[in-house]
Specification:
Elements: H1 2-15, H2 23-38, E1 45-47, H3 49-62, H4 65-75, H5 77-80, H6 84-99, E2 107-116, H7 123-133, E3 136-140, H8 145-159, E4 178-187, E5 196-202, E6 212-230, E7 233-242, E8 246-253, H9 256-266, H10 269-278, E9 280-289, E10 291-293, E11 296-298, H11 300-305, E12 329-340, E13 356-359, E14 364-370, E15 376-382
Parallel strand pairs: 2-3, 4-12, 9-13
Antiparallel strand pairs: 1-15, 2-4, 5-6, 6-7, 6-9, 7-8, 8-14, 10-12, 11-12, 14-15
Helix pairs in contact: 1-6, 3-4, 3-7
Length: about 400
């Protein structure tokens, strides 16, 4: 009876829906915290909050009692004071619009919950993850691990038209009980066409000796721009618009690695909005490196630092997934491809007088944002790039 009433609430919430204003700041703050757990001084870090937050909501849908409360608190739903049914209806609306039910060529994403075959999965759970997250539940047979791996990777390939990377590079082991797998793809589809692609120097870790030589995307145009101090770090910021109500905010600390680390350790949704509010349209000469990266992360241990603990041991209460005792998460895999290139069709008006320059030839931060809600969809730090 309880699960039936919850499904009714979810359906009703989807009909009469408006974005909860407090939910996006909470999710953005969570994304910035996840980023901080992944920082290693001399490495790139690229993640998709759109992907792993929706991935964790598959777990939230299946959790009860303290397990659910830990997820709710960690994701910021407590502080946002948004009821559970409105959380899931927000995600349904967001994913439907962003992914266009998989018709969008430049953003692809797939979420899969792998459940060991000896745990019977409730039909209500399968319906809810499909309805609100367009996600799938796949049974895992420990005696057919190679076949299961091929099946999962083939599913990802089909569901994303071959754009997102394979999520499994090795079979899941016999210890697997519940694995949350995600694979995503994002390519910059700019509203404008870059005027020039020209090779230039990128100073890895901000060091002048032995730079990498690679293509830079160059354009002179009118863009939102600011040169300001954020958390005592001097920062240049520029925002470039993509199609489909998406924009990319680039932050370039003047003091290279030291400033970048200091900035990312302190950034919050509030300080990001302070940057955005301070930006004004200006004629800017923009140069950003062209790159395509394919990171893969097991987030399970990182999530425990952020308060999600019971989900990963025998204390887990996942009775909304299966009534059988002993189900808990053994893996949280997040794979993606991020492609920053010169895809764009509209020519830009020629600008002769440049007021400011934004040259990302040293470590920088970037945030791919949904312009409708302000939510961070993809984000990262670029510290080093190989010559091409």
């Amino acid at each position: 009876m309880k699960s039936m009433s919850f499904s009714i609430l979810l359906a009703l919430a989807t009909v009469a829906y408006s974005y909860p204003s407090s939910l996006v700041p909470a999710l953005n703050d969570y994304s910035l915290k996840v980023h901080r757990t992944l920082i290693v001084e001399e490495t790139n870090v690229i993640t998709s909050p759109l992907s792993y937050s929706s991935q964790l909501n598959l777990l939230y849908l299946g959790a009860r009692n303290q397990t659910a409360q830990q997820l709710r608190h960690s994701l910021g739903y407590d502080s946002s004071k948004v009821p559970e049914f409105q959380v899931h209806s927000f995600w349904k609306q967001l994913l439907t619009r962003i992914l266009h039910l998989h018709n969008n060529r430049y953003i692809k994403m797939v979420n899969v919950a792998i459940v060991r075959s000896d745990f019977p999965v409730k039909e209500s759970y399968k319906r809810n993850v499909k309805q609100h997250y367009n996600a799938s539940v796949i049974k895992y047979n420990v005696f057919e691990s190679q076949e299961n791996m091929r099946s999962v990777n083939n599913f990802v390939h089909r569901d994303t038209n071959g754009r997102a990377p394979p999520v499994l590079l090795a079979p899941l082991d016999a210890y697997t009980r519940l694995a949350l797998l995600n694979s995503a793809y994002f390519a910059t589809q700019w509203k404008f066409k870059f005027q020039k692609v020209q090779r230039g120097s990128f100073y890895n870790r901000g060091l002048k000796p032995h730079p990498s030589y690679l293509p830079f995307l160059k354009i002179n145009g009118s863009f939102p721009y600011a040169n300001l101090k954020v958390h005592d770090v001097s920062v240049k910021a520029v925002e470039l618009s993509c199609e489909e109500n998406i924009s990319v905010l680039f932050l370039l600390p003047n003091s290279s690695m030291e400033g970048l680390i200091k900035l990312e350790q302190r950034l919050t949704d509030k300080s990001l909005n302070k940057i955005l509010d301070s930006m004004r349209n200006s004629t800017v000469g923009v140069e950003i490196p062209k790159f395509k990266l394919q990171p893969g992360i097991d987030l399970m241990w990182k999530l425990q630092f952020l308060g999600v603990q019971d989900s990963f041991n025998m204390a887990a209460n996942l009775k909304n997934i299966s009534e059988k005792n002993g189900l808990f998460v053994t893996k949280v895999l997040h794979k993606m491809i991020l492609d920053v290139d010169d895809y764009g069709q509209r020519p830009t008006q020629v600008v002769y007088r440049i007021e400011n320059k934004f040259v990302a030839n040293k470590p920088f931060l970037f945030y791919v944002r949904d312009s409708v809600t302000g939510m961070i969809l993809f984000m990262g730090r670029i510290v080093s790039l190989a010559s091409k």
